[in-house]
Hints:
Distance between the termini of chain B: 33 Å
Low-confidence stretches of chain A: none
Helix content of chain B: 25-40%
Structural class of chain B: alpha/beta
Largest sheet of chain B: 7 strands, mixed
Number of helices of chain B: 9
Number of strands of chain B: 16
Largest sheet of chain A: 5 strands, parallel
Oligomer: heterodimer
Radius of gyration of chain B: 18 Å
Order of helices and strands of chain B: EEHEEEEHEEHEHEEHEHEEEEHHH
Helix content of chain A: 25-40%
Strand content of chain A: 15-25%
Shape of chain A: globular
Mean pLDDT of chain A: 94
Largest interface: A-B, 39 and 40 residues
Radius of gyration of chain A: 23 Å
Number of strands of chain A: 16
Number of helices of chain A: 20
Structural class of chain A: alpha/beta
Amino acid sequence: MATDKLQKKDRMKIPRCVMPEQDPQERIRNFSEVPIGLPEELAVQEASRCLECPKAPCVAGCPVEVDIPGFITLIMEGDYAAAARKIKETNALPAICGRVCPQEEQCEQVCILSKKFTPVAVGYLERFVADYERENNLVQMPKLAPSTGFNVAVVGSGPAGLTVAGDLTLLGHKVTIFEALHKPGGVLVYGIPEFRLPKKIVQSECDYLAAMGVEFTTSTVIGKSDTIDELFEMGYDTVFIGTGAGLPNFMGIPGENLIGIYSSNEYLTRSNLMRAFDFPTYDTPIIRGKNVAVLGGGNTAMDSVRTALRLGADNAYIVYRRSEAEMPARAEEIHHAQQEGVQFHMLTNPIRFIGDDDGKVAAMECIRMELGEPDDSGRRRPVPIKDSNFTLDVDLVVVAIGNSSNPLIPQTTPGLETNRWGNIVVNEETMQTSRQGVYAGGDIVTGGATVILAAGAGKKAARAMHQFLMAKKEMATAED
Amino acid sequence: MPEVLDNVKIGPLNWKMRVRVPKLVAKAKAGQFVIIRVNEEGERVPMSIAGLDKENGILTIIYQVVGKTSALMSTVEAGAQVLDCVGPLGLPTHVENWGTAIVVGGGIGIAPIYPIAQAWKKAGNKLYAIIGARSKNALFYENEHAAVADKLVVCTDDGSYGRHGFVTDPLKEILDSGEKIGMIMAIGPVPMMKFLSKLTKPYQAPTWVSLNPLMVDGTGMCGGCRVAVGDTTKFACVDGPDFDGHKVDFDLLIKRLSAYKLQESESFHKFVESSGCKLHESIREIAKAG
Lengths: 480, 290
């Protein structure tokens, strides 16, 4: 379905599309996706808003430099599957990124239209074409370069590892992904809830990689079953570490080991990966609190509190020590949470948890905060207001204050340099670690960040790993 | 998917399963554990290692049926598969020649203490072994332990076999004899490990216990298995499962183990009702009682 190209001035008059969404009161009773997806006509209309700038700022705004005007033009030409393939030239995970990227801080923030009007809804369009391609069975296998004979080990099947696997397979290398959990996807499968990222989409992206020739070995914990050094002994020529920020941070305040206090990793893993929201059909249980407090202000906190509502909470609170303006969560997710009835306790810090006789959490004592001078992150440091203590009745608390790097790989890989927070140190351009042939990217390097940044790191690493392998080949040929 | 070689009932509620997992077995050591998932809807459940056949790549686990997942496990037939078996997880039990060492296994703990006994004996220790269970039919591995230990004492709570009493009775006698004990390791129900640690403390006999909190991922990612040891919080799956028995807050562990009592009961009863004759009679009995 082709669109007649409108004049620029007419295009700028079209308002930005509104994503159809499930009604808030309806959706807190289910785990289905909240944004339903643009219908075709609306997607085409939105695409027509793009001014097709010759030096499009949106491309540079994208951490992996997707050819945004390129794929939008293909939408306007009516070839949605080609638009999806255009995105896949640089980003292997469009169905995922279209849903979870903070476009408002990336491509859409620098869109020319954002100056005086509203930016093109790049994310919604990316999602539209990726979903269209998948739902209409139009996914094509890309052409792979001839086999190079090299073997690549990727540790971790989150966004960084998946991106490395895809890029290196395209270049003709044989890739094996080692995943500790029983399903691939990493944070995509255990961390982000069904209502924001359906797991069948994650599986579909992994299936696409498998069809390309990537081997997935799940339930394998590198560092426990084999070390990185043993991977080299087994015949792998290069290794990528994408093991993520898998070490939960706790507050360290009294009462934190009471029943009913979860790290966000545990709460979300039970609900998302183990599908505890569907207990007893699925065996893994989860505590369904009536008065739930989630500590933190990021996307994980939003995911946790909205999960709590769906699991039957009467009151679901976000307790955050700074103000709403400083919350790192996506504005869209904060908005969704507000629509769903989450109660926001800003400038509030818990100081201890109070339990009942059975060892279950019953209340949380908090103190009010006010903003003082900026700290290291540039944000104003919150300071407690003396004697402002109060108690919140809670029967479930989720601690979503961030994650540190899982220490398993650094502990079992001699010579792998880490910084004082346990993050792996890498060359910023090549993602190479202090060990030759060993690369790393994603949260294990940066600390907890986003899916697209992990994917971007994966791209850089894949490029460098390919050069490393090709140099090996040259040396081997020279020695013959 | 790992193949189950056999899955045999060895006591009123105890089963012994052997699984072929060559890579895992090659790396595993005494004191570590695995996490098993039987089917797609199933839980990830930790199981202590009871035996490692390194030559053939076969893992032995011995488990007690206490709820849905263990009951489900008991129905897995020889030749069938479990969905996943991941490991080896946790840190291996420390092995050293202390001179004289004591291993104590209570109830289902008699299983994981066995490979530890073997390792400690191999390291050159004079080894005492004490194993105990509720009654005669709940005992197992007596011959195995007898073949390894220099002296084995077998106890039953009801006196139906061996010495009438708890495992702490013969342990106290050894300690009272004045013999220098370099290390004690105890694995069993939490109250048993608690009281045993309490007993040995005044003797200043170093005592390690293997903790069994609830787990989900087993790799240190979720913190569900956190235990209080002294004034620190540790994750049993990556810092343990062995900890200094004199510092563990056992009461906290007992409480945390009860977090899902209601859901566990609901799940178990539903399973027993729907499984009919596939389940062993003894399992249906405990469902009725529980």
